[in-house]
Amino acid sequence: MFTYYDDLDEAENKQVKLNLSSLPDSPVKLTVRLLDAAHDDEPVREEILTGKDASVYLDLALFTTCLVTLEPVD
Predict the structure, then answer these.
(1) Over the stretch 46-65, which tens digit does the pLDDT of each residue have?
(2) Would you list the domain boundaries of the chain?
């Protein structure tokens, strides 16, 4: 979980790159949930990751909290 916060209310959106490594050999589902003015802990993105390493890019508005979870795919 992380939050994009800046003291300047006029701050631009920010692109965040998450580098994931040492993922399991079996596929995992990545879920991104947002908490901000427009979202109340809603899932906004889901992906199946199949490699040992992955990079995920997220565009965040100011004062956004983001929860990223990984779970095994059945």
Answers:
(1) 999 999 999 999 999 999 99
(2) 2-72
Q: Is the pLDDT of residue 41 over 90?
A: yes
Q: Residue 10 contacts by C-beta under 8 Å, 6 or more apart in sequence?
A: none
For residue 39, the Cα-to-chain-centroid distance in whole angstroms is 14
Q: Name the CATH code of domain 2-72 (choices 2.40.30, 1.10.8, 2.60.40, 1.20.58).
A: 2.60.40
Q: Vertex 12, ends 10 and 17: CA angle to 5°?
A: 145
The first and second tokens of residue 13, run together, are 């959106």
